[in-house]
Amino acid sequence: MTRSLLRISIVAMATLALSVLTASANAQSTEELINQLCGKAEAPARNAAQLAEAYQKAFDHLLPLMSAEDVGSRYAPQIVLQNIGSYAARPGAEIERETLAKVLFKNVDRPNLDSTVRQWIVLQLERIGKGESVPCLAKLMADPDEHLRDCARRALEKNPDPSATDALLKALGDAKDSKWKVGLINALGTRQAKSAVQPITNSLGDADPKVAATAVTALSNIGGQDGVRAILRVFDMPISPLYTKAAQGLIDIAQEMARRHDLASAAEIYGMMYDGATRFAEQNPDISVFNIRAAAITGLMSCDPEGFAARISELMRDKDPKVRAAVVQAARHVPSKTPTRVLTSLLSDLDPQSQVQVLALIADRGDLSAVDPVKKVLSSGDESVQLAAIQTLTRIGTDDGAEALFQIAVAGSGETQKAAREGLALIAGPRVEETISAHAAAGQTNARAVAIGLLGKRHTPGATEALLGYAADADEQISRAAFAALVDVADTVDVGPLVDLLAKAKSGGPRDSAVTALRAVLSAAKDKDAAAQAVVDRMKTADAGVKIALLSSLDASGTTTALAAVCDAAQSADEALRDAGIRTLANWPSFEGVETLVAIASKPETSLTHYVLATRGALRLIGSSESAPMDQRVTLCLATFDNARRDDEKRQAIATLGALPCQKAVDRLAELMKDESLKTEAALATVDLAGRMLFTDRQAARDLAQKIRDMNISDEVNRRADAVLSGRFRGRR
Questions:
Q1: I need a labelling partner for 264 at 20 to 30 A (CA). Which of 233, 274, 533, 677 fits?
Q2: SS3 content of the chain, % helix, strand, coil (to 5)
Q3: Spatial separation of the C-alpha atoms in residues 654 and 674, rounded to whole Å
Q4: In sequence order, which residues have a C-beta less than 8 Å from that of residue 278 and are 6 or more positions away?
């Protein structure tokens, strides 16, 4: 008994071990097989029967994984099946592709197969299937599962075998549901199946407008003369939105013909569509067909620009301005110059809006032969046309065009004169520079002044020397024009000669213009110290008027040498010189001028005018000079506040403290909030400080803002404090 039990136990254990080993071997074998079928491992040669067995084995392994209750886990095995399909469909492996396809459609009808698995199988047939898959897919188009039916339809749509078209046509003939018809018609249109033209044409009269519209699209995709004739039947039907769809379908066919270089056929369709749309627009003024007319115009122009040019005159008389614009736009996109030249010849007779459009076209084309027609419309009564003509002549760039613009620049007015001068600053031409130089040298004063200004704008070679010469002219208008033009070439002007010219210039307009030029030269000078020193040296020998003029230019330099001279003048006993010095110092560009300004403002004997100038100048620099030491800025700001004579300057100083985020400013503002007359301004400045502190110490900024918010000084203060607390602060408005 014991021996029998022992024998049975040994047999059972051996059987169990064998089953485990067998399962392990099978698992290993399946994994290896799948790697072979995916092209990831070397595979032995297999005939069709062996391939079918291998594919079935792999499918049987993947099926339960693709049907798992855990939906998320299904993706990986689905991709494995897809990879097997991709490898089977590789070039030169036709037997593998066909065998796998047969295995797949054999399994798609397995009982109780999950619907998502069936759809995934059909998707693989869409990717690899050919003629062998068509019967299966055709059968599936009658399946009760709507999603599976549509998957089969899409697979047939992409199937390269002609029998797929027959299957789709049969399904269309049996179709009752509008949605299903739309899908089938789309599929046939995508396949460009010429055998489907008649069945699809029958759907043009379908009661469901979606089906009819889809039929038009499908016919346009099929194209050719058959598609054209079929779509034309729409226009024999009662007027409906399908008209526009059909017209667009014909345009699409014509565009495809043009892409295939069948220009004659395309042009025939475009012409037919334009004429038909035009008649339709005349008979149905409430229905817009402009898009069709515009597309037809563009098509006709692109197919035969030379022949279409003969129709341009007629089209430019169309009462619809959008049609006229479409003609100009179409001419822009063809390489032929003929349409543009026809439009140019009509320019004078066109309406202003069309003239502007044609002028832009001419400008883009840069056609030199268009200069004379463009010049004719310079005298148009419509300013927009004049401005467009000026711009066009500028871009074409000829001597004749430049001369025409010069006359407007001299005798014109308003925007046209301004545009002409701007155009002359840019226009090119072989003798434009020579022409402008000649006008600058001789002629009426107004014309000379304009030309002199252009020498600077154009940076004409030798312009600097010429302008310095004109600046010495006895005629004040010429002199002022030359000084003004020197501003445009400031970086090429030597300070010495300009200072000498300023000294000789008459007081008033010429000298003021000279100062403006000198400021520009000082600002643009590469060696600012040397330039400023030249001005300071010349001041030593200048008379009072010239000295003040030279002094007033030094803030443009901003150098230490210039600052010293200005500070000396600002404290001079000479009233006129002191006035000029303080005014110049008040405009100083750098922080170095602040101490002198504060000192001037603090003196009781300083006049109110000079006190205000000095105070405002100092506060401007204190608030904006972020590179200067903070402690020094705060100290000078507080000194300005303490020496303020009026509440206006006190408030300005308090506002400036709001731009100086430091504890010293916070403490002083806290004191000032105790003064009822300054309380609100001090609170606003404190909130400004808090806003600036958000970038450096967010918590301290919020604490300070909350403190001001708790004081409830005013609605405006509260609003800004809340902005700081929420991180939305943007500073004062």
A1: 233
A2: 75, 0, 25
A3: 13
A4: 293
Instruction: Report pLDDT for 431.
Output: 92
Give a yes or no: residue 150 inside a domain: no
Asked if the structure places residue 727 within a domain, the reply is no
Over the range 158-186, which residues count as b (16 or more CB within 10 Å of their CB) and which as e?
ebeeebbbbbbbebbeebeeeebbbbbbb
How many domains does the chain fold into?
1
pTM: 0.72
The per-residue b/e assignment along 475-513, b for 16 or more CB within 10 angstroms, e otherwise, is eeebbbbbbbbbbbbbeebebeebbebbbebeeeebbeb
* Structural element, H or E, at residue 474: none
Whether 689 is in a domain gets the answer no
254-300 pLDDT, tens digit per residue, is: 989 989 999 999 989 888 888 888 888 788 887 778 888 889 899 99
The type of residue at 574 is D
CA dist., res. 350 & res. 239, Å (int): 35
Residue closest to 604 by CA, chosen among 575, 632, 645, 657: 645
What's residue 27's pLDDT?
45
Question: How many Å is the maximal CA-CA distance in the chain?
Answer: 144
The SS3 call for residue 196 is helix
- By the 8 A CB rule, do 692 and 730 touch? no
Q: Which amino acid is at 705?
A: A
- Asked if 339 and 330 touch (Cβ cutoff 8 Å), the reply is yes
Residue 396 lies in a domain: no
Range of the domain at 560: 525-579
Structure tokens at 38: 């995916």
Instruction: Judge contact between 358 and 326, C-beta under 8 A.
Output: no
DSSP state of 593: G
